[in-house]
Amino acid sequence: MDGVLNINKPAGMTSHDVVLALRRMLKEKRIGHTGTLDPLATGVLVLCVGKATRIAQYLEAGDKEYQAVMRLGVTTDTLDSEGQVLETRSYKPPERENILEVMEGFLGQIMQQPPAYSALKVGGVPSYKLARQGRAEPLKPRSVTIHGLELTAYENPFVSFTVKCSKGVYVRSLCADIGERLGMGAHLTGLVRTRSGRFCIADAVTLEQLGAMTPSTVEAQVLVPMSDALADLPKVLLNEGDAVRVMHGNQMSCPDTLKGSSGGLVRLEDGSGRLLALARASAGVLKPELVFS
User: Fold this and answer.
1) Which residues belong to the active site?
2) pTM to 2 decimals?
């Protein structure tokens, strides 16, 4: 079984819990996720199955969309409602216009410090493990991009908003930073990922739905073929001779439509629509980057 599953992750499970559940259901060891969701969060969790585990890094690189709820006036050590309360502040509820103005200041490319309670590794150890032991070290700020922020509801102390962003954004950190700029602190209380790359929540399936299917039914009705999962990439159809050369890792000339490209990733397929490789267009040639047997 080779392909991609768009799962609607339930609250209370880690991303790895979902992977373990699918391994049992599908009797397939080669399953991995693309982009961790915290136990608090629900929504789109893209899983790669079989040979598709090799394309996980390309799927993970896609932009994300979230629906978030934060609570003003309370800060926690994990930056969300599952952590220990650090401080409860008295404050004058901000006006809606003030919240909008602060949010606008986070649009575009920003430097964001990941939370201590995260899976990022410090000296080979996940940061959250160090934090639980009281040995957390400040993580280096990273460059991320916020494409859009929209305030959808405000009833003090709760603020609901949507986020469109690049890979690597921690919505928990975003809430904490917005709260600090507002002057009263804040933490995340609810999060739904509604899109990851080209995968949307409207098309996601639940673990309960998958559990009612046989593995063959999942493969026939739910599993997304690797080429379809990468449909945002340009496609190049190869003749038999070029297909053989590419399968041996050899480069080939760019089609006329791609000769102006530099560094762009493309899909290479044979006449039957089988995904043979991913290649990068550079200096008029296609250089295979990932070849499938």
Assistant:
1) 38
2) 0.91
**Same domain, yes or no: 101 and 176:** yes
Task: Tell me the pLDDT tens digit for each residue of 109-130.
Answer: 999 998 888 778 887 888 888 8
In this structure, what CATH number is given to the domain that contains residue 9? 3.30.2350.10
Q: Which residue has the tokens 């930073």?
A: 177
Is 68 within a domain? Answer: no
pLDDT tens across 37-61, in order?
999 999 999 999 999 999 999 999 8
| Amino acid at the residue 160 | S
Q: Are 128 and 116 in contact (CB under 8 A)?
A: yes
Residues 6+ apart with CB under 8 A from 202: none
Q: Are 289 and 265 in contact (CB under 8 A)?
A: yes
